């Protein structure tokens, strides 16, 4: 089933996108920062969300991991 039709899978994809973009921006900031507008700006916005809301994002990742382990 596609991640678009399963809400839990959609949340997992969004969390992975945020975490990946935040990590890539920490390692290679120019790679993310040069594309702030357009479709690739989505990655810049995801990195900003990961930086600013990192405690909440980490709690969401832990909750998602627990949910996946229980199932």
From TrEMBL:
Q: Where in the cell is it found?
A: Golgi apparatus membrane
Listed InterPro entries: KISH_domain (IPR051523), Ksh1 (IPR009653)
Q: Which residues form the signal peptide?
A: 1-26
| Membrane spanning stretches | 53-70
Q: Which Pfam families does the record cross-reference, listed alphabetically?
A: DUF1242 (PF06842)
Keyword set for this entry? Golgi apparatus, Membrane, Signal, Transmembrane, Transmembrane helix
The UniProt entry's sequence similarity note says: Belongs to the KISH family.
Protein name per UniProt? Protein kish
Upper classification of the organism: Eukaryota, Fungi, Dikarya, Basidiomycota, Agaricomycotina
